[in-house]
Specification:
Blueprint: H1 2-13, E1 22-26, H2 33-49, E2 53-57, H3 65-72, E3 80-84, H4 86-94, E4 104-110, E5 115-119, E6 129-132, H5 138-149, H6 155-165, E7 166-169, H7 174-183, E8 188-191, H8 193-206, E9 209-214, E10 217-219, E11 224-226, H9 236-244, H10 251-266, E12 269-273, H11 279-291, H12 293-302, E13 308-310, H13 312-322, H14 327-339
Parallel strand pairs: 1-2, 1-3, 6-7
Antiparallel strand pairs: 3-12, 4-12, 4-13, 5-8, 5-9, 10-11
Helix pairs in contact: 2-11, 2-12, 4-10, 5-6, 5-10, 6-14, 10-13, 10-14
């Protein structure tokens, strides 16, 4: 019967274009920060795309396998979109991965921040911080070390200071990490804006947690980080200046600036392969979303007020991030991650500009 109906439709109206379900690949389990963001954005985007969007989760160690799988096979599908996130960007800088941002076209990205909070305590500035390791957490480790330790001569000194001041807890899922922070077993946490509003802001409102710091937002015009208007006054550099009476500088700060720029710039970005015939349609739909007061009100309520970088501007943003990779900064990052965080990091000279 279905074939008969289709044949009649073709005779009467010509070739019938069936609706193509788009798929967003999210490289983590449901409930993670990127999963929350993708669910919010996909519901709004499909209104302008005119096609349904399905979320496909491909979790794995440090959220790498999902991106690798898309790079190696799934990107051949014209209707498959990759949602990159911060952990992918950190891994790109220092691990053997298959994917390479330079080989894709940007549909668009949200120029986001990551916000850290801590439990309210009288000794919050002096007691060792208990913090969960996880995909994309490297910038928080560096930020905590810089804020707590101040100006030090080299990475070796910062590694020692980190070990004296931070208890880096391994093997916790996102759900376990959030529960441990609620119970006080962890004294610090971090989330992307959407997850922060959902999981941490209620604790701040209840008086059991407080805003700690954020990393700022990269201004694509100046290539400098600026304060987050959603959480003004808590940018790491501003807090460092207040505490140590000088701006942060030196090899660890250079490593921090590199990794936070990549992690936050790439943390919520939509990619397709370079010759994807649907690229223009996808970019146009995202531009319509960004111009829609109704859709942006929905996103801002759940995420906050952050700008979209769409189309070729997304490719330019990616290219700018690549210029931040210098030999000293990358080597300092690998040393700290290996010696302080115990990550299987390696120096990748092919990335140096």
């Amino acid at each position: 019967m279905r074939q008969a109906i289709l044949a009649v439709a073709i005779l009467c109206f010509g070739v019938v274009n069936a609706a193509a379900d788009y798929v967003m690949i999210v490289p983590q389990k449901p409930g993670g920060g990127t999963s929350i963001w993708a669910a919010i954005v996909s519901r709004e985007l499909e209104k302008f795309l005119g096609e349904p969007i399905r979320i496909q989760h491909i979790p794995g160690a440090r959220d790498i396998p999902g991106f690798n799988k898309w790079h190696n096979s799934l990107r051949a599908d014209d209707t498959t979109i990759m949602v990159s996130h911060g952990g992918n960007a950190v891994a790109f800088l220092q691990e053997n991965v298959d994917y390479n941002y330079a080989e894709y076209d940007s549909v668009g990205m949200m120029n986001l921040d990551i916000i850290a909070a801590r439990r309210v305590a009288e000794d919050a500035d002096t007691a060792p911080v208990r913090f969960a390791a996880g995909s994309g957490m490297v910038p928080e480790a560096l930020a905590m070390t810089l804020l707590r330790c101040g100006p030090l001569p080299d990475v070796d000194a910062y590694v020692g200071c980190f070990k004296d001041n931070v208890i880096w807890v391994h093997a916790m899922s996102s759900a376990d990490r959030r529960l441990a922070f609620i119970r006080g077993e962890l004294t610090g946490t971090r989330e992307n804006p959407a997850a922060f509003k959902k999981h941490v802001q209620p604790m701040i409102d209840a008086g059991t947690a407080e805003l700690w710091f954020h990393h700022g937002i990269l201004d694509p015009e100046t290539n400098q980080h600026v304060d987050d208007p959603n959480y003004p006054g808590y940018q790491m550099e501003m807090l460092y200046q207040q505490r140590w009476n000088e701006p942060p500088s030196g090899p660890l700060y250079d490593a921090y600036r590199l990794v936070k720029s990549f992690r936050d710039g790439m943390q919520k970005a939509l990619w397709v392969r370079k010759d994807n015939p649907n690229l223009a349609q996808l970019r146009d739909a995202l531009a319509q979303l960004a111009a829609s007061e109704e859709s942006m009100a929905v996103i801002r309520e759940r995420v906050g007020r952050y700008d979209w970088v769409i189309g070729e501007n997304g490719n330019s943003f990616r290219d700018t991030l690549m210029t931040f990779i210098t030999e000293p900064a990358l080597k300092s990052l690998v040393q700290f991650n290996t010696e302080a965080l115990g990550l299987a990091s390696k120096y990748k000279p092919e990335l140096v500009q």
